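Q: Convert this sequence to structure tokens.
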Amino acid sequence: MKAAILAAGLGTRLLPLTERVPKTLLPVLNRPLLGLLLARMEDAGFLQVAVNTHHLAEQVQRFLADRPWSLNLSISPEPELLGTGGGLRRLGEILGGGPFLALNGDILTDLDLGAVYQQHRQDAVSSLVLHDCPPYNNVWVADGAVVGVGESPPPGAVGPPLAYTGVQVVGPGMMEYLPPGEPCDLVTAWRQALAAGERLSALVVTGHFWQDLGTPGAYLTAHSRLLQGEAPELARYFGPVTDPLVEAGGIIEAGAKFGGGVCLGARVRIGAGARLRRTVVWEGAVIEPGVELEECIVASGVRVSRTARGEMLV
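A:
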């Protein structure tokens, strides 16, 4: 089985954090997101994986090179962004064509990726994994197939719309709608395929864990949900999980208090009397005594000497 991870995005909604770290390497419970995605692909039986890069590409390349993956890994560099469709086209070429699983590099899910791959129908140009996730619901379905993408229901749509999970299986026929070497949008390609009478299968899932990590709020929500034990299928990728989660070498001084949803990276120091709630602190950061943080993300090595709420501290 073959797979692609779309990891070239700029991560603009997470600025200024993503000035330092590409979105796909953001730590999730102190583990780089891309490493979690690749570990899940290894466990699902995928043998060949391609990853596209653009923003801070050297960090992604170094991360991939520094670890002994059992996967046959390839990198698809994009000096100029090719968009969701153009990037997917180049990844498919590197993988030797479809079918291949394609996964957005800014989501975390416990979906059985191997089972998703096996459900792809050969008569479909792609199979999209969909779920009910307002306010992102804009994919219309009828009889197990996608019939439209957009705000308004197309003729023949049955029931309310669903949301794309960021997981799909791309068949060889989809390449016809992704022009080689040109920036293009995946949604536009889907619409062109539908207009040409192609089948886009709809794989509807329920009862799973899924979380986007593309905004500060979503990133913090992911940590809160994981710390609350909402994704037991993913627990083995993190080791023992407690709230607060304190990585090795962390120092918590007397009187520091935590209000839930707190994750502390390696060698973090929390000063006496500090108070943290729904906050993620990356490795090597220092929170000075008496500081109160709520709904904050603290970048690696930063020293925080003031109270803050809803901020990214870099």
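The chain has a mean pLDDT of 95.
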